[in-house]
Amino acid sequence: MARTRFHDLHTGTQLLFIAEFVVLCVIYFVGLEADRSYYPDLLPAYWEGQLISHFALFILPTQISILSVGLYNRKIRETFRGIIRRMFVSVALGYFISTAIYGLTPIDVLPGNLREWACLAAFICLVTLRYFALTARYQSLGRQRVLVLGAGERASIIERRMRRRSDRVSFDLVGFVKTRGDSPKGIESDPIIELTTSLEAYVFEQKIDEIVVAADERRSNLPVDSLFHCKLHGVEVTDILDFIERETGQIAVNLIYPSWVIYSNGFQSTNYLRNAFDWTFNTFLALFVLFLTWPFMLLTALLIKLEDGFKAPVLYKQERIGLNGKPFNIFKFRSMTTDAEKHGAQMAVKGDARVTKVGGVIRKYRIDELPQLYNVLRGEMGFVGPRPERPYFVRELVLSIPYYNQRHNVKPGLTGWAQLKYPYGSTEEDSLEKLKFDLYYIKHRSFLLDLLILVRTLEIVIFGKGV
Question: Which residues form the Bacterial sugar transferase domain (predicted)?
Answer without folding.
Answer: 280-462
